[in-house]
Design brief:
Layout: H1 3-18, H2 22-61, H3 63-67, H4 69-91, H5 109-115, H6 120-133, H7 139-168, H8 175-191, H9 194-200
Helix pairs in contact: 1-7, 2-5, 2-6, 2-7, 2-8, 4-8
């Protein structure tokens, strides 16, 4: 992979990772509700999980969708249902200090890593990057570069969104303002599904 293509890849990875989507919306909400320290497993789960997904798609798992298009449709239906459930969880989250609550908790590392496999934005990014940056001549080297770039860029992005959410905590001191924020984040999460739903209709 030439230096020019690597720079193009870094730019693509940065734009894909930093723009709003399900992961970043949930990290922002988690930063507000639980703080940066408790959101770290969520951040690492997104970063590691997405990197593994990039590797899998780069090595050809995305071709399954070409052979069995019904699998991709089923995946999108499952992802929409799961994201709606997550939006409900965010909207009904309690006050900003949930340590005393047995129900409110940040997403775990495993949950965040597994979520990447039902994240519609994640699939679109993976399929696009594999098609454009993995060559038939050097697949192993290209996938290694892709994985390294997205690992670093995703870590920066997830940290940034979680820190942004944490910085908002002093502004959301009462339960009402936190609930308004959480409902707004839930609506943002649902809105991120619209391109997928529109394509399916």
């Amino acid at each position: 992979m030439s230096p020019d293509i690597v720079l193009s890849l870094i730019a693509f990875a940065f734009v894909a990772s930093i723009t709003p989507g399900p992961n970043n919306t949930m990290l922002l909400a988690s930063g507000v509700n639980f703080g940066f320290r408790r959101t770290r497993p969520h951040m690492l789960g997104v970063t590691i999980g997405f990197t593994i997904m990039i590797m899998a798609v780069g090595f050809g798992i995305g071709h399954v969708f070409s052979v069995f298009p019904g699998v991709y449709t089923a995946l999108r239906v499952v992802s929409i249902a799961y994201l709606l459930w997550l939006a409900w969880r965010i909207a009904t989250a309690g006050a900003i200090d949930p340590i005393v609550s047995d129900e409110a908790r940040p997403m775990t590392f495993i949950e965040a890593a597994l979520f990447q496999w039902v994240n519609p934005k994640g699939w679109m990014v993976c399929l696009s990057v594999a098609a454009n940056y993995v060559s038939a001549d050097h697949p192993w080297a290209d996938v290694a570069v892709l994985s390294a770039v997205f690992l670093i860029v995703s870590l920066i992005s997830t940290s940034g969104w979680a820190l942004f959410g944490t910085s908002l905590r002093p502004l959301l001191k009462d339960e009402r303002s936190v609930r308004v924020f959480n409902v707004a984040m839930a609506f943002a999460l649902v809105a991120s599904l619209w391109p997928i739903v529109r394509e399916m209709i």
